[in-house]
Write a structure and sequence with these properties.
Cytochrome Bc1 Complex, Chain D, domain 2, peroxidase, 3 domains, two-stranded antiparallel sheet, 586 residues, two-stranded antiparallel ribbon, 6 strands, cytochrome-c peroxidase activity, mainly alpha
Length: 586
């Protein structure tokens, strides 16, 4: 906390200098926010310059790591701003230490930022450190430029503060951006301090501001021993709800944009917090009760297949959380299995890529792909539209669901209807959801399992709360894939030959990469992995515990799963499975 107090004192001193230079106190909310940001940016720049000088002088690893952590703390004071107002620059400041892949253009760009600096420090690699710090320093210039050129209003600043709380819940506390130094819990205090400061500037009452002090003070301890379950349920979520509730009754204006999270949501686990419409790319595809009902009929209709004997529900069985219980289903022709395991379509509407290889950017594209796949449905959206046009009842339902469609049932409306139904499959009704909302309880084993999930096992650094998939809150603008090194069988030391995303985007980082799927309802969706080779959750946990393919000595240079053993105890593994079972919707 000492560094935080120092930063606030520097901020106040900066304001005093500004007021003296200008001859008067900045009067507008916009000016006060900008002054604060510029002072904080200067602090970050000074700490970065100091780190660079130390690196060039060849100082000790311990001294360099301490200076680096000072830089991270200074950045965390600014993160609410960079992530909300300058997301492109934010990725350069604190993005993952992996090449950024542009799939549409089939190209990569080198990683940059604090996480790259961290890789050069834990352990120390002197030849990499100074270039990484220089690259980070260059991005601070762009951040300062954004601060100077942005007009700040109360609605967007509050929304940015709320997003900072959600980012802390989804990414920060898990240590997602501090995988080596493991500073997620310590840095939570910086995030909470910055949000408290913003809330004070907006005019929040002292009673609310004092709650920040309690929640900040309890963010302490090792990630391997921290009570994440208790902290989320009794500290962090109640505070973010109190923030949102106060703002919504205070008379302040709301943002007008369609954002992923509902303005009334106080936590990521609130019912209806995530808006399905945010993930829709065409206005006429936004789900309505009529579209959902129509899509449900189509989803269960075997006439969708060219042979007239297979529906979507044939492979996505509601009783099995919309999977089929098979390692791999069989081709429509019979005999040969299809290429991959059948994934659940529950919560599929809340991600930015479909299929294990993410080849379809939208659910509508996924529906089209499945319909025309000769091994799955051997039909097309056009064929389905033709027989619907000949059915007066179905035709009337389409007119009611899509008043704008005119005289003909077009293929895109077929895809939109089925996609609307899939987007409705997001109940958020598991025991764990109720616990996080304060509406229910989970057992001690499940609580311990969640703590392992967030801490020692590091599961939440890829399976992000609240969706437990690769779509990160609070922006929800991208869905990640990982190279795990999946084996042909848990008992065979041989890498599965499916090259994953590389088939469609032939870039080396995507070789054997697969989308990070949701863990919700995972107790019902066995067998697991893209090849369906893992029959139980215990086998999956053992796979991660040993560090994937690289962890057992198979050469896989681009594996993103750390190869080091997690060293989970039998009890921790058991508790982790019990927690995963608590994600089953009722």
């Amino acid at each position: 906390m000492k560094q935080s107090v120092t930063l606030i004192l520097a901020l106040c001193a900066g304001w005093m200098i500004c007021w003296a230079a200008c001859g008067r106190k900045p009067e507008t909310f916009d000016a006060r926010i900008r002054t604060m940001l510029l002072v904080q940016t200067d602090t970050l720049q000074r700490r970065t310059d100091s780190l660079l000088a130390m690196a060039e002088r060849g100082e000790s690893e311990t001294a360099l790591q301490a200076a680096f952590l000072d830089c991270r703390r200074a950045y965390k004071q600014l993160e609410w701003f960079s992530e909300y107002y300058a997301p492109g620059t934010s990725r350069l400041l604190n993005g993952p230490p992996l090449p950024e892949v542009e799939t549409e253009e089939t190209k990569m760009s080198d990683p940059a930022g604090l996480q790259v600096v961290e890789e050069a420090l834990y352990p120390l690699e002197r030849e990499s450190l100074a270039p990484a710090v220089r690259s980070f320093a260059a991005s601070i210039i762009a951040l300062r430029r954004t601060a100077n050129n942005t007009l700040f209003d109360t609605a967007h600043v509050f929304d940015a503060a709320r997003m900072a709380m959600f980012r802390l819940a989804a990414l920060g506390l898990s240590g997602f951006d501090t995988p080596l130094s493991r500073q997620g819990i310590a840095e939570a205090r910086e995030t909470l301090l910055s949000v408290k400061f913003l809330m004070g500037m907006i005019g929040a009452p002292d009673t609310l501001l004092r709650r920040f002090e309690t929640v900040t003070a309890t963010a302490t301890g090792s990630p391997d021993a921290f009570d994440f379950a208790g902290y989320y349920a009794t500290q962090l979520h109640p505070l973010s709800r109190a923030m949102t509730n106060w703002y919504n009754v205070s008379g302040h204006t709301q943002v007008k944009e369609l954002l992923a999270i509902d303005p009334l949501a106080g936590s990521l686990f609130d019912s209806g917090a995530i808006r399905a419409a945010f993930f829709v790319h065409q206005p006429d595809a936004i789900p309505t009760p009529e579209k959902i009902a129509l899509g449900k009929l189509l989803f269960h209709d075997p006439k969708l297949a060219g042979t007239g004997n297979r529906s979507c529900a044939s492979c996505h069985n509601p009783e099995k959380a919309f999977t089929d219980g098979l390692a791999r289903n069989v081709s429509l022709h019979g005999g040969m299995p299809i290429a991959r395991n059948t994934p659940t379509v529950m919560y599929a509407g809340l991600q930015q890529g479909q299929f294990y290889d993410m080849r379809s950017p939208t659910l509508e594209n996924q529906v089209m792909d499945v319909l025309q796949n000769p091994h799955e449905m051997r039909s097309s959206a056009a064929n389905v539209a033709q027989w619907i046009s000949r059915d007066p009842v179905m035709r009337r339902m389409f007119v009611q669901a899509f008043p704008e469609m005119g005289d003909s049932v077009r293929p895109r409306f077929v895809m939109a209807a089925i996609a609307a139904y899939i987007r409705s499959l997001q109940p958020f009704s598991s025991p764990f959801d109720a616990f996080m909302r304060g509406d229910g309880e989970i057992g001690e084993e499940e609580r311990r399992g969640f703590n392992v999930f967030m801490g020692k096992a590091k599961c939440a650094t890829c399976h992000f709360l609240p969706l437990f998939n690769g779509t990160a809150a609070p922006a929800f603008t991208s869905t990640e894939s990982e190279v795990l090194g999946v084996l042909t069988s848990p008992n065979i030391r041989r890498l599965d030959g499916d090259s994953g995303r590389y088939v469609h985007v032939p870039l080396e980082p995507l070789l054997f990469a697969f989308k990070t799927p949701t863990l919700r309802n995972i107790a019902k969706t066995a067998p697991y992995m893209h090849n369906g080779a893992y029959r139980t959750l215990a086998e999956v946990v053992d796979f991660y515990d040993t560090g994937g393919a690289a962890g057992i000595g198979i050469s896989l240079p681009n594996q993103t799963l750390p190869p080091d053993s997690l060293r989970l105890t039998p009890l921790e593994k058991q508790d982790l499975v019990r927690f995963l079972e608590s994600l089953t919707d009722r």
